[in-house]
Design a protein that fits this description.
It is a single chain. The protein contains 5 helices and 12 strands. With 270 residues, it is of the alpha+beta class. The protein has a 12-stranded mixed β-sheet with strand order 7-8-9-10-11-1-2-3-4-5-6-12. The longest helix is centred in the last third of the chain and has 21 residues. The N terminus is likely disordered.
């Protein structure tokens, strides 16, 4: 996939504007048994310079939730875009904690996780040019992976995609040492979208959980939770035969997901 970089961000207006959208292409391998099958999706970091606050999520997620909100106001029921892959949200504040929000508009309520792990960066003298910016390399260990980031002091924003932050400049690219998770910037725009995904009502009732609690939750797939709902009677079937067919289908899907969806961005949560 090819993208055209919008050369619309220059150092001087960092001091005269408030809102920016940094768009990255996120490439990832969901199945380590099929490393040649690479998925990608555009993700965005919406940054407010005045408040030093940012929100990161998938571009399709923002568009989908925005569309659903408009349709709901018209009295029309709409459903999430089934093609979106990045549905979680990461909220960062320079002087505050980092929060991770699980996907919304699912059978399970949104949970909010306070991120307390620190990113200990090692900045090297290695430099290169990336889309017209001089970038330096920094490395860290996070989520059970080794990461290498390229950041530029020419854009003095201590932020980046996903949970990455804390360097003396914007992270333009970051990847793990297996090259199965990579974020690469494709455009920088003055002014972000007027729609803030965290304004969606599903986030207003988010339940706060600890990182340990979320790790336990994340180990169980949504398919397994659907299966539990069938057992407890939360899902109603017309016949016992229909119920057994549903359970068998769930079992097959759960087995397939465990085999082929085996490469999450975070391998551990401590």
């Amino acid at each position: 996939m090819k993208y055209i970089l919008l050369f619309c961000l220059f150092l001087p207006f960092l001091y005269f504007s408030q809102d920016f959208r940094f768009t990255y292409n996120y490439k990832f391998v969901a199945d380590t048994l099929e490393k040649n099958t690479v998925s990608d999706e555009l993700v965005v970091l919406d940054f407010n310079e005045k408040e030093k606050h940012s929100v990161f999520t998938g571009l399709k997620h923002i568009i989908s939730d925005s569309t659903m909100r408009v349709q709901a106001e018209r009295g029309v029921m709409a459903f999430p875009d089934p093609s979106m892959k990045v549905r979680y949200v990461v909220e960062k504040s320079a002087d505050g904690p980092i929060y991770f929000y699980s996907p919304n508009h699912t059978p399970d309520a949104v949970v909010k996780v306070k991120e307390q792990r620190k990113l200990n960066w090692k900045i090297s003298n290695e430099k290169r040019n990336l889309m017209g910016y001089t970038v330096r390399k920094a490395t860290t260990t996070f989520g059970g992976r080794q990461w290498a980031a390229w950041f530029t002091a020419e854009l003095p924003i201590s932020d980046g995609p996903y949970k990455f932050h804390g360097l003396p400049g914007l992270i333009l690219e970051v990847s793990d040492d297996t090259n199965t998770h990579t974020f690469s910037i494709v455009s920088i725009q003055k002014n972000k979208s007027d729609y803030l995904v965290l304004n969606d009502p599903t986030y207003k009732v988010a339940k706060s959980v600890t990182l340990a609690e979320y790790e336990k939750i994340s180990q169980e797939s949504p398919l397994e939770r659907f299966k539990k709902k069938a057992f407890t009677g939360d899902i109603i079937f017309k016949t016992e035969e229909e119920k057994q067919g549903f359970l068998k289908n769930m079992d097959d899907k759960i087995k397939a997901s465990k085999i082929h969806d085996n490469n999450p961005i975070e391998l551990i949560y401590n």
